[in-house]
What we know:
Elements: H1 2-21, E1 26-34, H2 41-49, E2 55-57, E3 70-72, E4 75-76, E5 81-82, H3 91-95, H4 99-115, H5 122-126, E6 128-134, H6 139-151, H7 160-164, H8 168-177, E7 183-184, H9 192-205, E8 211-218, H10 223-231, E9 262-270, H11 271-276, E10 283-292, H12 305-318, E11 327-329, H13 336-350, E12 358-360, H14 363-366, H15 373-387, E13 389-390, E14 413-414, E15 422-429, E16 433-441
Parallel strand pairs: 6-7, 6-8, 11-12, 11-15
Antiparallel strand pairs: 1-9, 1-10, 2-3, 4-5, 8-9, 10-16, 13-14, 15-16
Amino acid sequence: MYRAVWQRRVFIQSFKTSAELKDRRVVVTGLGVISPVGCTVHKAWSTILGGGCGIVQLEDERYNNLPCQVAGLIQEGKDAQKFDLTSHFSKSELRSMAPATAYAIIAAQEALQDARWFPEEEKLKQMTGVAVGMGMIDLVDVCETAEALKKGYNRVSPFFVPRILPNMAAGQISIKYGFRGPNHTVSTACATGAHAVGDAFRFVQRGDADVMICGGAEACICPLSIAGFCRLRALSTSYNKTPEKASRPFDKGRDGFVMGEGSAMLVLEELHHALSRGANIYAEILGYGLSGDAYHLTAPKEDGTGAILAMSRALKDAKLHPHDIGYINAHATSTPVGDAIESTAIKTLFGTHCNKLAVSSTKGAHGHLLGAAGNLEAVFTVMACHTAWLPPTINLDNPEESMNLNYVPNKKQEWFGGIKRFALKNAFGFGGTNASICIAEYREK
Length: 445
């Protein structure tokens, strides 16, 4: 009997501890970006605020017979040369990793340097985790290896399987820095990056880690993937000669999304842990909402139920109300159906508050990074909360009359009003998977 009473007390104490852990505040202390609009956070944010665009025409002749011939490629330097991974990794290192993994490592390096977090003590490494997602594996690698196998078994690389496993970006980062906290991977199509950030937020909030490096990576621009999405009629096909105009969220002339590539990483940290070491704090993560449409493989439910549930649950988790939100970084990919449904969801949930709400999509500038979209755009949402500048929706020349929201058309806007800046970041994926993250300006309570 004594043992039973003791076990009950332990259970009650554990329950109380879990409840108390939910009050742990989670802040953003580091950011890293490699993207079509810039290969550092500073460059990417400057390009976004300036209304720049990183979408280009695909010059490889293999794309000549495909309906879509534009994409958001990672470029660097004054001459906008294609990004060269050999300047960052040795040949032997590149043999063991897919390009998406390499992008994740580069973005993680910048984020960790920004956060000044390279722990050497074992107990600190054990409380530092990684949550990195990937939407699609490297299709080029799969095709090339399939061809190699036709020539002989020994032509198949021993690194083939590790290169195509979605969790290898998280694994490589964990190994590189010796992080022994949660090692977590998400693959939820175009909601991947947002889910990775949200899950990392929960890991820190509940005490599974004090620091998490989180985000997503994608590098799947190739003729096969372009062809596949074209067959779905998902990609833009009307602007092959004017690629900078191809991605146009919320605009009447939108005809599909533009694929992009890259990675973005955030360092999330428990507040007292960050303050104790004098870390720079960009913003605070307040809430995380998830939902399923339970409707269709590729199309969202017409009434926006999935988006409404994700946003409302993020608000509930953050203990906020719709009228507290000043900005929404939309998922809006530039598809005729998706953008309209997201607008409907926003108008339904926020009602009369919509006239005080700003909504924008930065995908006009960098395209849709699929599994790395939600995290890249979360970085821009963090920067909006931090700097009080709202990123524009470029190429928004003719908004639909029924979608009458402030979409921050073509030029950045200063974030006015409100005692404190609160934002939502939306991300939705094929299969009806949805995520919304509540991000706020950091202020000490």
